[in-house]
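Lab manual, section 2.4: Encoding a predicted structure.

Procedure: take the sequence of the chain (671 residues), apply the prediction step described in section 2.3, and record the output as structure tokens. A sample record is shown.
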Amino acid sequence: MAEGGFVLDQMADDPTGSKSLDTLLLECPICLEQFRHPKSLPCLHSFCKECLASYIVNESSGNMASASSFSCPVCRRDTEPLNQSEDKQRWAEQFPTNNLAVEMIQHIQNTSTLIMCKPCEKKGDINIPAKFWCEHNKSYFCESCKVGFHDLFHENCEPENITKRNKSATIRRKMSATGCGKHKEKLEYYCEDHQILGCHKCIIVDHRKCEAVTSADDFRDKIQTTKIEDLLEELRKCVNSMEILIKDVEEQLQSMTEDQVTALESLIDLRTKINERFDVLQKELTDKLTASFKEEKENLDISRKKCERLMFAMQKTLTSSQDAALKEDAVGTISLFQRGQAEVESCKGLIQELEKSSKSTSLRHKYNPDLLTLDTKTGLTVGEILVHQQQRKLPTAVVCKPLSERQLQMIRKIDIKRPTDEKDCDVYGIVIISGGRIVVGDNENHKLKLFTEYGDFKCDVEISEEFCDLCRVDDNTVAVTLDKDKTLCTVNVRDLTLTVLSKIKIQNVTEDCLGVTYNNNMFFVGALTSLYSVSQNGGEATMLHYIESKCLHLASDKMNGRVFASINTSDPDAVAVIRLCDGTHTDVLKVGVVNGTTGIDVDREGNVYVCGFNSHNVIQMSGDGTNVRELLTSSDGIKRPRAISVWGDKVVITLSKKSDQRNFVQLFQLN
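Recorded output:
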């Protein structure tokens, strides 16, 4: 970069504070400092060699990497280097040095000390500063010597005043005798073809074929008449335009600065308001959480108090029964007996009541984790409080009426046909899981649908392949068989949504896969002629048992590790239900009370429920098949039942597409 010097010192001495003319002439337009190795472009604008080289490299980078020219940093005139094949970092060196600027800088630096009067020096007075320069005598004079010596002998010669005010003009006139950057000769000629000044060597070597080459004086006279004035007028207009543009830029900068301050204040204000709003939202969710907890706690406290009061009463009855004197009192004994009977009935009733109403409640704060990601478009929210309730099983030690002694009572019919369904429903599989969530497999419309036990539709998910049976994998996962593809599709059932998780290919099975159940990390699959098992991760299937008719449905007794297969047959004395356990199979039910068995499931006590498609009934039997009773018949509106699922004391049943109830799921309760 350029270095400062005497010129900057002159500026400091300028009482007006404006730059002197020699400062402007010797200042690089890029770095705004005094020239260092100045190079002149054909447009006569000069720059530090280092500044010009950096500018050329930067401008020719990127899309301009293959450019063969560059624009002048000042006037934007397109400029070509002398040798385009040379590396762009060396293009600046090809342009001529501005020798006039170099010599002006050297002269300024050399004259930074005071110039002394020559006649006074010869008389021995060496401390008298010079004030005038005589070109004719090539000598400096003080004011006294000019009047007393110079003016006496050189009346027609007027020396130049070399005070600071006129020093720049003096130096420029002195230095103007030379200036060619290539030959260090006087610039005497001008080539109008190339619009460039040159010395006589330049003209002979580079411009001898040009048509319009004149002397510098002639070209000056040519343009001085009108063109100079016109140019100066244009320059004044351009200067005025630049002043307007500079003022406009400054106004824009001022406006942007004010906008920045306003925007920052707005951000701070918005942040304050957001904090206030989030405080309100947090309080609302906190209140909801507290209210939900309080409500559920009150319900549990009521249940506990009922149990405590009844327990204390029964304990008192037991204590009273040990009183020996009471045994001699007939009336007292009878009263104690009656009271005990009433308390036992109350206990059974309370247990049944709690069995129906007992629910496990979970309170959870849910929010979108994407909120914590910086590059996200997720809207700001504090989330929501989820109150999830599901049917809760009472402890097994509680004495209550066993499921094997209860009767089914219709609760409601759930309409499963949706406005978007193109056809009537045909439900091959159904599963009810905790919380009364019911997943329906509508093969006719190729959808799995999710309902609540109250009949509220929540969502559905499309299954493009043909599917058959459904089974429960865990409290939030079900599986469905894609029969033609020999594939098991697992579906997540959480927060009242359905999401396909995975597809598990069943290898080395060639026949359609129909029924399915899950037990001990294994899937059990029923086909047209065989029963198979396959790992929960898929892979090759193992054939467990050959069957004489197709198996549409299977069920698991997870407590005892047993699997029950429903064999769809109407042949008299044929096997209707098979039990698989520890690698062996047992025929537990033959065709009889049920005919053409389809849906099958197992309750928590190990009771097996079987649908009779042709017999139009639903039976309940013990796990070994010894105790069988009809729960529902055609008189209960059961016609061609297809699928069944049991959870707690709730039972859901679907009817075949041949039934007029094909678009409904029937929900029962064991009472």
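Check your result against the sample. The first strand starts at residue 38 and ends at 40.
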